[in-house]
Design goal:
The complex is a heterodimer of chains A (about 450) and B (about 180). With about 450 residues, chain A is an all-alpha fold. Chain A has one domain (about 20-145, about 180-450). Chain A is built from 16 helices and no strands. Chain A has helices spanning about 1-15, 25-35, 40-70, 80-105, 115-140, 165-195, 200-210, 220-250, 265-290, 300-330, 330-345, 345-360, 365-370, 375-400, 415-440, 445-450. In chain A, helix 4 (about 80-105) packs antiparallel against helix 8 (about 220-250). By secondary structure, chain B is an alpha+beta fold. Chain B is built from 5 helices and 4 strands. Chain B has a 4-stranded antiparallel β-sheet, with helices on one face. Classes of the chains: A mainly alpha (about 450), B alpha+beta (about 180). Chains A and B meet through helix 2, helix 6, helix 8 and helix 16 of A and helix 1, strand 2, helix 2, helix 3 and helix 4 of B.
Chain lengths: ~450, ~180
Amino acid sequence: MDERDDRHVSIHATHPVVGSELTFGSVTDKISAIVLKRKTPLGWFIGFAISFVLFQLLLLTITKLLFEGIGLWGVNIPVGWGLDILNFVWWIGIGHAGTLISAILLLLRQKWRTSINRFAEAMTLFAVAQAGMFPVMHLGRPWLMYWLFPYPNTMGVWPQFRSPLMWDVFAVSTYATVSAMFWFVGLIPDFATLRDRANSKIFRVIYGMLSMGWRGSARHWHRYEMAYLLLAGLATPLVLSVHTIVSFDFAVGIIPGWHATIFPPYFVAGAIYAGFAMVLLLTIPLRKVYGLQSFITMRHMHNMAKVMLATGLIVVYGYMIEAFFGWYSGNQYERFMIWNRMHGPYAPYYWALILCNGITPQLLWFKKIRANLLVLWLISFVVSIGMWLERFVIVVTSLHRDYLPSSWGFYQPSAWDWSMFIGTIGFFLALLFLFIRFLPMISIFEMRTILPEAEVEAE
Amino acid sequence: MKQTKPKLYGVMAQFDSPSTLVAAAKETYAAGYRRINGYSPFPIEELSEAIGFTRTSLPLIVLLGGIVGGVGGFFMQYWMEVIDYPTNVGGKPFNSWPAFIPITFECTVLVAAFAAVLGMLALNKLPQPYHPVFNAPNFALATRDSFFLVIESNDPKFDHDEAMKFLKSLEARDVCDVEL
């Protein structure tokens, strides 16, 4: 027991949550300088330019799509969902880590969340924006998307509320709204900090307006903390509900391989898994470029890697249970679906998925691997691909061969499927580049609260 | 000293650490001042206790928001699917309430979250672009590393010279007037 305690202490000593040299002043100056004073690194311009070009690819694809219809993509009956819905699920899954870090870890009083929550929330918001585009474009007539909302109309009809697709509309739009509010509320005190540090008048006015006249009054802070805590409490069940409802899009259908009770927990775990992979994918280079090692320490890397490992194991459990269900159901269609996944035309995707999501992350059991940032980055990259493959396997293999062999088909994404996907990656990165340039990517006021000098000594 | 209409917002003391601010706030409260406020770069739980501000109606507002959202969300669906335009979907009853739960839940969270954010801003009277404390010379540091305590001039016990003297007796780095 003693030995264990010693080890515990040493891990905390060698990997503190925050660098010991930091003070209120230096935390404030370092983070706000990235926005206000430091010269924008050349890499920023290059990265932003590339992602902006890719964003143009998205606009081009959407324009062509509006002219030609969704036949532009490779989707056709029986595979009507294809890359489009797959990418929707992939992006929305990535978004989940942000809310997990900012809300759930807040409720669990995990101090280490503080230096990554702002960034992860921004990532959530931008990922949800990408996700939302796919089902809307998939409608065929996206300019009529407002038909999805219940509004009094001349046709006198209402949406069909018994459909999971309607639940999706409410879940995703609520999620986007609440995430945006959570993010903005977190930013208010930092806007005030930027307002008071800005040198140029224009920035002072803009940040001043955004800060809404925040002045750090004790009464304000009290209500603010209450609001933040309540929002975290609301966002926690919300984030679980969103991917649950996304999984209902599948699970409520009667397609073999979709109609399974494992889907909601399996999807939620997968979402957190993919989200943490994306957070690592982005923070590892970012912390190096901007020299944020004393804010985002090795402790964060270890913790995120461990969350990834844990959720990855849940996902692997999901794969095993899926296969087990297929066999145990005794249903010939379910059994065929599993057999077809493993041996059919899309078998390479399935086995690549097992390799990416099941086997590779097992490396994270080793402390040495978690401490090697390059390897950790590569594993995160592999996991991101794995989660994309997972959705491919779920969407495509179940649809392309269902009950009647006469209605079987084969799906191949067209070049426009890919350009749309790559375009959203560009849009996502472009938004992130703008975010790290114009907003504090680490929550300044929350960093102050975890410094040792923030402790109020009792007399 | 017979000012009927105070031209001052109050007097302000500046501190270097959260501990000294909290200690000073406690002393000020104990000295009988009630219209006092602290300003800090980050939330300090002990500070709002020290100035006697511990209750807020925000949780109640959020609860009401949640109830309105939940009840509204459910009956929106009920009214549309049962009363206004009943449709037979797969032979399910018109009031197939289990299928209405996901949207009911989302509406609950949505309205409660709006209540939390807008309620917080409204109770804090934000946005408020101008406030007298911004006139104080070092107040820009309230968003960096400085801590402030203000005795407001509308405090029943407020007397300019006495309040000034009192704040100077605390461990303040600096004491100044805040003009209205």
